[in-house]
Structure formats: C-alpha cells, structure tokens
Specification:
Blueprint (H helix, E strand, L loop, with lengths): L2 H19 L4 E2 L2 H4 L16 E3 L4 H13 L3 E5 L17 E5 L6 E5 L4 E5 L4 H10 L2 E2 L12 H7 L6 H4 L6 E7 L5 E4 L12 H5 L8 E8 L1 E2 L3 E9 L2 H15 L3 E8 H10 L13 E9 L3 H17 L5 E4 L3 H12 L1 H8 L6 E3 L5 H15 L4 E7 L4 E7 L6 H4 L3 H14 L15 H7 L2 H14 L12
Parallel strand pairs: 2-4, 3-4
Antiparallel strand pairs: 1-2, 5-6, 6-10, 7-11, 8-9, 8-10, 12-14, 12-15, 13-14, 13-17, 16-18, 17-18
Bound molecules: flavin-adenine dinucleotide.
Flavin-adenine dinucleotide binds next to strand 3, helix 5 and strand 10.
Length: 477
C-alpha cells in the first residue's frame, strides 16, 4: 500500500474512533502516548498509532470493530503494573493501546449474594474499600493494589498475599463481560456459584493476558469481613523451618491462616537501606523472617488465643527463634509495609533478574538449596533476593549482581541464569510463572517447558477466538 493510501486509512480509523469515543479520548501526540508505551519495570517499550480511552463497554466494542476493520492490533492496558511486558506494544506491529481506565464504575454490590459487579478499570483498592463499606471482604491484595485494575488482575490471574485461604483471582470471579476480538459483546455477568451449562468461557479469558478478548466487567466474590486480625513476624533459621512453621500454623489455625509470607534477610536489609524509616523488627539478624496473619470471624480474643497456642507449639518444637506480634492496626500495617516494599527496594537497588516461580510446597526447601548452590557455582558473589507467598508455594526468586558490579552488564547473564532457575523449577515439578503471567518476557521460555500437546491446544484456542491475530500479538502464545 502506498504511503498516501496507508495515511488515509489511518485517518479514516482515527475519525471512526474520535466519533465513537470523543476526540479527547483518542491520543495521538507522542507526549500523550508515552506513559502507555513503557512497562512498569521500564524494560519494554513500543509504538502505537493511538492510545484509545473508551468510557463504556459499547465504546470498547466500537473501538475494537474499528481496529478489526483496519487490521490494527489491540494491546489492552489496565493499571500498567504488570511485570512481564504484557501491556506494552512492540515496535513493528501496527497497534493501538486500548486503556480500560475510564471503565471505572462499581455497578452493583449485592451483600446477600456476597458479590460485587465492577468494570474492568476499577482500581483494586477501590473494590476492597467498597466491600468494607458493606462489612464485606474482597480478599485479593497485592503491593500494586493502589494502581492495578481488576481487569488486569483477571487477565493475569493475579495472586497476591491471601491465596492460601481464598485462591487467586480466577477463584474469586463468578462472571465476566467481554468484548470479543471482532467487537461482539458477551454478557456473562452471572453471580452464580453453580452453572454447568457448557464450556467455561469465563475461565478462558481469565489469565489470557488480553490475547483472547477484552474484559470489560466482572462479578467478583465477597466474604464476610473478619472481626479480628493478628499479624506477626517470626524469625526462623532457614526455609525448612519456615515450612515446619507453616504446617504448625495450619494445624492450629486451619482456614484462619490467611497470610504466610517468607522474606530472606537480604530482602529486609534492602528495604531498611532504601527506606530508612522502616525498622528491622528484631534485635538480632535472622536468616529468614515469616509474616503470618490470622483472620478471625469470632473475636479478637479468639484470634489471639489461637495465635498464642500455635506460637507456643512452634517455640517448643524449636521452629521459631523469635517473634513479634502487632499490637495495633498501625503496627500490622508496618509489618505488611516491610513485605510490600521488597519489590520497590529491589527496583531502587537497580536491575535484577526476576523469577516468579511455584513449586509444590513440600519441595520448596529442596528447590531453594539446590538452585542457590547452582547459581552460586556459576555466578559467584550474586545476591539471592528470595521472598514470596510461601503459604501457596510461590516464590519471587530474584538474582541481583554482586555488590559493586554494573547492573546493566549483569543482565547479559539473564538467559543463562533463567535457564538454571527454570530447569530447576521444572525438575521440582513447578511452574515458571506462578502469578505474573507470561507477557512478552516469558513467551519463548514457556515453550521450553510445556509439552507440544499443551502448546498446540493453546494455539488452537487462540486461532479459534482470534483468527486475525489482532489481540495482543507477541504475548503468551
Ligand atoms: C510493586 C508490585 C507488586 C506486585 N505484586 C504482585 C503480586 O503480589 N501478585 C501478582 O499476581 N502480581 C503482582 N504484581 C503484578 C501486577 O500488579 C499484576 O499483574 C496486576 O494484576 C496487573 O494489573 P494491571 O491493571 O496493572 O494490568 P496491566 O499491567 O495493565 O496489564 C497486564 C496484562 O493484562 C492485560 N489486560 C489488562 N487489562 C485487561 C482487560 N481489561 N482485558 C484484557 N486484558 C487486559 C494486558 O494486556 C496485559 O497483558 C505486582 C506489581 C508491582 C508493580
């Protein structure tokens, strides 16, 4: 196509979009588009002919139809906090970024059905607050909750800190509204806990990272708000002791155990170094610290009694070396802040090589010991930044350069380090992406570990739903 013809096609596309969304919601100036063209970690950049900001499901459908007619790829974007480059276009495919952030209405709260119906661009924290106002809990919680959106959470099947009790985002979702790659609207906003009427379309779109369609709204589950919470930090000698503490906590607290996070000493040193207002919680340094949280629907006294019984058992068995219990809501917040500032402190420290892995809980200690040894042998002096949601088997197993080594130069080792880690994950029966998805970061790597049958099934689903390959190309499959 000549330049003049392609320019006139582009102008016709932009006119259609301006008419459907309003001119101020079609961004074409480089300065306006720039924040949408780079990912949170600043590792991926791309280009887009426009950034589209529809304000309703119908406007999303109109924008998708225009893209379909003009063969432009669509990169959906929510809060742009994803860690795998899934919401960033590439530099070669003619694309638009379709931001869902104006779809930000809470459509309905149904306390009796324990559900909330929200549009895709609602910020996670706003859903938590809306639930709280009705004396309910929306349990999805992660460090990016002040800026990530429920559409992004669903599309990455986000995990976070309460998965061991409530499951990940998939398990919190009852129904979806989706705009298909050809611009049809599927209204599957059912607040049902039982519905066996054929293939589960909802589950296809959850975790699809925008490659099968655009989620525009969802019905999410709510739970009764807990009456009391106990948050504590417990120092343990090593990951094996942390696993024994997990077993003890589950025996004594059962479903009351809602948080169980592991943080190695170096993680906490990074946090206290980069955020000096935060204090290391123990008089002595310990190799590993566990953050435990119990949530109780009975009373504060019941929660504290349960916690004390479990800690007594853990001290008696020599599992715990020291412990501090939050005495106020603020102190509980401070403990969580230590945990949630680890990714931020890592980013402040400089670039590192991240792995978001899951292995069966019973094999976590073996995994850490074996993999640490292999990495240390191949790259002496590197710093292992290991932390994560131990209660559900998910570790953020990150590798930082030795002190003093240039961070950018260190990234040249990325493939070699990733292969050591992921081969070990595979050997331990694990997954190379526990909760962040594949995006463009891990698409190729995933092919090393999935069987041909699995990749072929995924490819045929993509082909069936998006035959023109317009939805978020270059991601996932
Ligand atoms: C400090 C920090 C801590 C984090 N902690 C966690 C954690 O504990 N657990 C965890 O799971 N993740 C975590 N993340 C990663 C990230 O916050 C989650 O992946 C989140 O779910 C992304 O939501 P988002 O709205 O920012 O999505 P985006 O980054 O905008 O998009 C993510 C993916 O979803 C697609 N997408 C977005 N919206 C839609 C939609 N409406 N329809 C279709 N596709 C869509 C995008 O195309 C992209 O592929 C963390 C990130 C940061 C920065």
């Amino acid at each position: 196509m000549s330049n003049a013809a392609s320019d006139s096609r582009l102008q016709s596309f932009l006119s259609l979009c301006r008419a459907a969304l309003g001119p101020t919601h079609v961004l074409t100036e480089p300065g306006d588009k720039a924040p949408y063209l780079i990912d949170w970690r600043r590792r991926f950049t791309g280009d887009a002919v426009a950034v589209l900001l529809p304000g309703s499901t119908e406007e999303v459908a109109a924008a998708v139809k225009a893209c379909h007619a003009h063969q432009l790829a669509i990169v959906p974007q929510g809060g742009n906090t994803g860690l795998c480059g899934g919401a960033t276009p590439d530099h070669v495919t003619p694309s638009v970024v379709l931001s869902l952030k104006r779809l930000n209405r809470i459509r309905q709260v149904d306390p009796l059905n324990n559900t909330i119906t929200v549009e895709a661009g609602v910020i996670l924290q706003q859903i938590q607050e809306a639930a709280r106002e009705q004396d309910r809990l929306f349990p999805l919680s992660l460090a990016a909750e002040g800026s990530c959106t429920i559409g992004g959470n669903l599309s990455t099947n986000a995990g976070g800190t309460a998965v061991l009790r409530y499951g990940n985002t998939r398990e919190l979702c009852l129904g979806l509204e989706v705009v298909t790659p050809s611009g049809e609207i599927w209204n599957g906003l059912r607040g049902l806990r039982k519905d066996n009427t054929g293939y589960d379309l909802r589950d296809l779109f959850i975790g699809a990272e925008g490659t099968l369609g655009i989620i525009t709204a969802a019905v999410m589950k709510l739970y009764p708000a807990p009456r009391a919470r106990v948050t504590a930090l417990a120092a343990v000698a090593d990951p094996r002791a942390a696993l024994k503490l997990l077993e003890t906590a589950q025996q004594h607290a059962g479903p009351m155990l809602t948080g169980f996070e592991l943080m190695s000493n170096i993680c906490l040193s990074l946090v206290t170094h980069h955020y000096p207002q935060m204090r290391y919680p123990f008089a002595e340094q310990h190799d590993q610290v566990v953050l435990l949280e119990l949530s109780d629907n009975e009373s504060e006294a019941h929660a504290r009694n349960t916690f004390e019984t479990l800690m007594e058992a853990a001290f008696e068995a020599g599992i715990v070396l020291d412990a501090v219990v939050a005495e106020s809501v603020q102190q509980s917040r401070d403990f969580w802040n230590l945990r949630e500032h680890i990714p931020l402190a890592q980013a402040d420290e400089g670039k590192n090589i991240k792995h978001d892995i899951a292995v069966p809980i019973s094999r976590i200690a073996d995994f850490i010991e074996t993999t640490d040894a292999r990495i240390a042998a191949a790259f002496p002096g590197v710093r292992m930044i290991t932390f994560g949601h131990l209660g559900d088997g998910n570790l953020h197993y990150n590798v930082s350069p030795p002190l003093g080594q240039d961070h950018d130069a260190f990234l040249a080792n990325e493939d070699a380090i990733k292969h050591i880690v992921h081969d070990s994950v595979d050997a331990h029966g694990g997954s190379i992406s526990a909760e962040h998805g594949l995006g463009q970061l891990k698409r190729e790597e995933n092919k090393r570990y999935k069987s041909e049958v699995e990749i072929a099934l995924m490819t045929s689903i993509k082909q069936a739903l998006d035959p023109m390959g317009l939805m978020n190309p270059g991601k996932v499959v």
